[in-house]
Amino acid sequence: xxxxxxxxxWEDKExxxxxxxxxxxxxxxxxxxxxLLRVKNLCKYFPIYSKGFLKKQIGTIKAVDxxxxxxxxxxxxxxxxxxxxxxxxxxxxxxxxxxxxSGEVHFDTFTKLVDLCKIPEKKLKPLRTKMQMIFQDxxxxxxxxxxxxxxxxxxxVIHNLAKGQELEDRVVEMxxxxxxxxxxxxxxxxxxxxxxxxxxxxxxxxxxxPSLVVCDEAVSALDVSVQAQVINLLQDxxxxxxxxxxxxxxxxxxxxxxxxxIAVMYxxxxxxxxxxxxxxNDPRHPYTKMLLSAVPNPDPDVPMxxxxxxxxPDISNLPPGxxxxxxxxxxxxxxxxxxxxxxxxxxxxxxxxxxxxGKK
Length: 360
Hints:
By secondary structure, the chain is α/β, with parallel strands linked by helices. It has a single domain (6-130, 210-296, 304-351), classed as Rossmann fold (3-Layer(aba) Sandwich). It is 27% helix and 22% strand. It contains 10 helices and 12 strands. Strands 6-7-8-3-9-10-12-11 form an 8-stranded mixed sheet. The chain has a 4-stranded antiparallel sheet with strand order 2-1-4-5. A hairpin with a 7-residue loop joins strand 1 (37-49) and strand 2 (57-71). Helix 5 (164-177) crosses helix 6 (194-206). The protein is globular and about 70 Å long. The two termini are 25 Å apart.
């Protein structure tokens, strides 16, 4: 299989992307070796306005700042980092829940290749059936005044994809797939536990059989034992339905068990990108090493690791160079002003740090 991260070099020696795009325009494109999702130089900025009547713009928050990656069909990419690093904003911008400031998001619908950033909002509705989101809070994401049947069936009703007995059958089938009983569909969300509510949210997201699902901290609000059950469920559903995931989390210990590749984000940027085993066995960026050191060790004889240290930078006033310099143990003079770019240090392994060994 083609190196999924080769696109960071943005070399197209054989013209593969142009050929694929031509096929897509003819409605004939479907290639399992081509990325389902290609994100290129994606940015999402939020303006900061002054107080008062005039509301003058006085700054900008770069929540997502020039991120790029490819996601192959049937695989899972983890977006990890501390709270406020931009991972949730990235996921919502990719799905066009938020309008991007700039960049490209090429999505393969298996009938045509589309750039989600350039599609008018009014024309996005048909694509919503192919990309869905599982939310973090299983309590707040469900309408307490709707029954489980109404919640799970709502996407089918909105898109007019099923009605009558067909609608009922599809709801029952999906509830069984997520481990709930058909008789549960007449109950309301308050009658379920947190893990069961998250299963209802998963059923709602998958009822239209999307190809891309963004899991936004889908297990972080659950107990540890329930987290394992939900992760196993997501893996089974991925294999059964051929799903592709973007799995957003702040806990590296969780993403290790479900992700094929991991992108570590800090202050709106991807600082390291690698296959999961490579990231855990050979972390290269100082921030990745800091995150891994905070993962609890199950051995009771091993002392607990210290918490993440240092001050998180003000994302409305980031330095032109490395935004991690104030917390970095190997920082040298000039890191604050020296631009950091992703470069290749191994097979599918990319790091954004000019002090890492292997920089060319």
